[in-house]
Amino acid sequence: QVQLVESGGGLVRPGGSLRLSCAASGTMFGNYAMGWYRQAPGYQRGLVAAITRGGSTTYADSVKGRATITRDNAKNTVYLQMNNLKPEDTAIYSCNTVNADFSWGQGTQVTVSS
Question: Rounded to an integer, what distance in angstroms lies between the CA atom of residue 104 and that of residue 80?
């Protein structure tokens, strides 16, 4: 059974940075295109960044230029570096394949507030 464990969230002031990590176990991680999703209160979960097996990346307009998704297949881990954080980035961040093939993990809370 695949397990996804996210970490790295926290409380940060506007303009700050965070690096989120998602470790996957129980699967051939390198076989999948992976994504970072976020869900803010009152909103549906949405994809904000994705990375293919080969390392090509795409971003939602809301984070473009401020986010970088990377992956380390040897460690079965995908990362999301977020810079110049804004209050509207406040959400629970989760990872999954781009088709949401696996059960969701707990996610990691990111709160951007002064």
Answer: 17
Q: ∠84-90-94 over CA atoms, to 5°?
A: 100
- Separation in Å, CA 113 to CA 7, 30, 38, 91: 19, 35, 17, 12
DSSP track, 4-15: EEEE--EEE-TT
Residues 4-36 pLDDT 10s: 999 999 999 999 999 999 999 877 778 999 999
Distance CA 66, CA 42 (A): 24
Structure tokens at 22: 């998602």
Residue-wise pLDDT for 74-95, tens only, equals 999 999 999 999 999 999 999 9
Which residues have a Cβ under 8 Å from the Cβ of 92 and sit 6 or more positions away? 9, 38, 39, 40, 107, 108, 109, 110
